Amino acid sequence: MELTITTLEGNSAGSVTLSDEIFGLDPRPDLLQRCVNWQLSRRQAGTHKTKGRSEINRTGHKVGRQKGGGVARHGAASAPQFRGGGRAFGPVVRSHAIDLPKKVRALALKHALSSKAKDGALVVVDKAAVTEAKTKALRGQFAKLGFANALIVDGAEVDTNFRMAARNIPNIDVLPIQGINVYDILRRHKLVLTKAALDALEARLK
Fold this sequence. Notes:
Layout: E1 2-6, E2 12-17, H1 20-23, H2 29-43, H3 102-118, E3 122-125, H4 135-145, E4 150-153, H5 160-166, E5 172-175, H6 182-187, E6 190-194, H7 195-205
């Protein structure tokens, strides 16, 4: 697959041939779903907690008489059936993370990249850098290029001015190549890769 390399000004800067091993696969929704579930499960805090009956500070005195009261033989007011008592089988602090093999994660990333390439939503730019951190100027460049909802992936280091100018633009995410992931690729309409990011991806996934 061959794509035209463009600049932020909208000019052509040559072309590049994409690897079919990375960008030419037939996307598998099951792999993408597994990877997205894996990512989102790791994000969950898991800090929800309720108190059990052993953690409730209430009297342990027997509620009523053992016999003759006409009710059950309750032994403590902290039991779950009483108002103010502990909760039975409530949530506890835990990790929601699930396991996913590294090879499956790498394959899911290839399928996410291939899905963008197949939909025509993949753009390659020469570089993501600006001379001044001006959000208004960068927004105008994005409007000309049609980047209303996009993920922009640069090389190992993101240009500081570009990152600062883009951070206030809605629906625009900027990541270094180390942070590229399936969820962020799929949640944006367009995927914008710099030449440096493309070279790093091919070296990483081949």
